[in-house]
Amino acid sequence: MTKMVKIFDTTLRDGEQSPGCSMNLKEKIEMAKQLEKMKVDIIEAGFAISSPGDFVSVKTIAETIRECTVASLARATETDIDRAWEAVSGAVSPRIHTFIATSPIHMEYKLQMTPEEVLERSIAMVKHAKKYCSDVEFSAEDATRSDPLFLARIIEEVVKAGATTINLPDTVGYTTPEEYYDFLMKVREYAPSLDIVTLSAHCHDDLGLAVANSLAAINAGATQIECTINGIGERAGNAAMEEIVMALHTRKDILNADTRIVTNEIIRSSSLLSRITGVKVQPNKAIVGENAFAHESGIHQHGVMKNKETYEIMTPESVGLNENNMVLGKHSGKHAFRSKVKNLGYDLPEADIDRLFMKFKDLADKKKSVFDRDIEALIAKDAVQVPRTYRLESFVINSGNSITSTAVLKMIRDGKTIEKVSRGRGPIDASFKSIEKIVGMELKLEDYQLQSVTEGEDAQGDALVKISDTEGNVYTGRGLSTDVIEASIHAYINAVNRMFYDKQNHSQQ
Fold first, then answer.
1. Across residues 41-59, what is the average pLDDT?
2. CA atoms within 13 A on the CB side of 17
3. Is 67 buried (19+), middle (13-18) or exposed (0-12) by CB count in 10 A?
4. Which residues, in sequence order, are CB contacts of 10 under 8 Å at separation 6+?
5. What is the pLDDT of residue 302?
6. Which residues pair with 397 in a beta bridge?
């Protein structure tokens, strides 16, 4: 009989902690809804006590998501657990996830606690969480560098105290698959209570073994795997959810396990996360990379044309890729556009279709052909927009190799037009300086990226801008246009608008 494995997705908590991957409230809700659509079992929505913004996002997600368990992380302290419960109490299926380190190095240097003190704290805090919530997860941080006998003592006691899930993470990505399997089997032998609760694994990718270690954990009896979309997370990241899910799905004959994940939502989930964070996956990334189902070698092409299984161990459709090659252009009507959007896997309200169709027509006037990735870029950009405090009216650029670049920008705020002129080291630099003048704030450009959405000389430019304010807060903006300067200007304005949106939300909290 095939074993069902729960997917505990921590993209919005552990994933968001990775540098450059922060998300605002609207983006977190958008991502949470997509995770719900994928049918993940548990969404770890955040670390409620870490900031007012994190608390609001966990609480909002808990009150929005109806078909998944929603969890908040909490250190083994009463204040953390109280705050976590306050955040998730409105969920249909709430979970409190509390943790404490159990390895000698963590207990001595980080916690400055004795093993007995850690044991007592663990028991007391699980009991405290259980007062609020029937579903309590306990994690032994840095479990793989902990003494198995000590771990077994803690596990037995916290299960008696009410823990329903026990997570034994490879927090620093140190272990190997064989070692992790033997470790878990040994702990299971010492702690028989693991047979009556859910055993979970949370693996980091510091040695590139997170997915392999997670699969080893399943072989050792784990029935919950903690992971993230695209493998994002602190340091080298977490186990990639899409790789674990498709490994189980494709190799049921060996692994004898599966998940309830809707696999044809994988590509859309990966693309949405990349759009929100501005962190793209490498082309050769397993499952979701641009080249994962591409064949350039003549030998491979010949084999695939004869029988796809010669070089494809899973179908593109199984992860959400659409092989329909219908190309849309400026003569296409709304019916064809709506059909294409639906074929790409998006179920959008008619109002969104109307708005996107107008943007599509504008793009089709500039491009000979509009490809699937162009349309997905339009949808993704539209889905995560924030209120436009500033809006671009027009721009004029003077640039060349014998003159200093100047940019004249007109922007609108509250119905009033503001115009500024700036010089710069190039047209982009000059444009960004004009925006800074209009906004009247000292901003720092942290990152700027520009790439094409598709191939061809009429391809859309996809611009990414990251700016920071004087307090060090970083905001990401994106812009799309067949004119790369216009795309860059839109990206910078989008980042500015996100800054104002976030500051306004924080002032209301």
1. 96
2. 17
3. exposed
4. 44, 202, 226, 227, 228, 233, 238
5. 45
6. 407
Q: Give the Cα separation of 446 and 300 in Å (integer).
A: 42
Helix then strand count (H, E) for the chain reads 17, 16
Place of tokens 């609207």: 26
Q: Where are the alpha helices (DSSP H) in 307-414?
A: 334-343, 350-366, 372-383
Strands (E) in 352-443, as ranges, are 391-400, 403-413, 416-424
DSSP letters along 261-277, please? --GGGHHHHHHHHHHHH
Alpha carbon separation from 473 to 129, 443, 499 (Å, rounded): 33, 10, 9
| Helix H or strand E segment including 34 | helix 25-38
124-175 tens-digit pLDDT: 999 999 999 999 999 999 999 999 999 999 999 999 999 999 999 999 999 9
The CA distance from 104 to 162, in Å, is: 25
CA-based angle 460:463:469, to the nearest 5? 160
Q: Which residues partner with 403 through β-bridges?
A: 400
pLDDT in tens, 272-317: 999 888 888 888 899 998 777 764 344 444 454 456 656 577 888 8
Sign of CA dihedral 478, 482, 484, 486: negative
Cα separation, 231 vs 478, whole angstroms:
22
Strands 444-452, 461-468: pairing kind: antiparallel
Q: Quote the pLDDT of residue 294.
A: 61
Q: How far apart are CA 30 and CA 35, in angstroms?
A: 9
CA distance 92 to 412: 43
Cα R_g (the chain), whole angstroms = 25
Phi, psi torsion values for 197, nearest 5 degrees:
-130, 175
Give the start-end residues of each E strand in 76-217.
Answer: 94-101, 136-141, 165-167, 198-202
Share of the chain above pLDDT 70, in %: 91
> In the numeric block, which tokens belong to residue 399?
């640039």
* Distance separating the N- and C-terminal Cα atoms of the chain: 50
Q: Which helix (H) or strand (E) holds 183?
A: helix 177-190
For the entire predicted model, the pTM comes to: 0.74
Q: What CA–CA distance (Å, rounded) separates 56 from 58?
A: 6
Chain mean position to CA 364: 30
